[in-house]
Specification:
alpha+beta, two-stranded parallel sheet, 2 helices
Length: 119
C-alpha cells in the first residue's frame, strides 16, 4: 500500500494511490483517540507523484476514465481536494503542491534539481 517514515512529530508517507489515505485516516483517527495526537490539515501537504488521475472521483460502471492530456497542478489539486472533501472531509484543508520540503529533503517530481537543494 505504501511506505511510512516518521521522525518525532514529522510523518512522511509514500502511497500507491490517494485511495490509501482512507486507511491512513483510520490510523490517525485512532492515534487521536488513544494518544491525543492530532493532525493540523493546514500544515499537511499532499504531493501527487502520478499524473495519471481519473477525470471524475465518482465510480463509473465502465471503470475510470483518465485524462487525455497531462493534468496540470490545478487539475490535480482540484481533483484531490474533491476526493478529500468527499471521503475524508476533516482533511479537506490539506495543501496540494508539486513539491514539499520534508526533513531537509524535497519531495516531488516537478523539479529534480530540488532533490539536492535544502534550505
Amino acid at each position: 500500500m505504501g511506505i511510512v517514515c516518521a521522525c518525532t512529530d514529522d510523518v512522511g508517507l509514500a502511497l500507491h494511490s490517494i485511495m490509501s489515505l482512507a486507511v491512513v485516516f483510520d490510523i490517525f483517527r485512532r492515534a487521536e483517540l488513544l494518544a491525543l495526537l492530532v493532525l493540523k490539515p493546514l500544515k499537511c501537504i499532499l504531493v501527487p507523484f502520478s499524473r495519471r488521475m481519473p477525470v471524475s472521483i465518482s465510480p463509473s460502471e465502465h471503470g475510470p476514465r483518465f485524462w487525455t492530456r497531462k493534468p496540470t497542478l490545478e487539475d490535480m489539486s482540484r481533483w484531490c481536494s474533491l476526493w478529500l472533501e468527499q471521503f475524508i472531509p476533516v482533511w479537506k484543508g490539506f495543501q496540494i503542491r508539486n513539491e514539499a520540503l520534508d526533513l531537509g529533503v524535497y519531495l516531488g517530481c516537478s523539479h529534480p534539481w530540488l532533490w539536492w537543494r535544502a534550505r
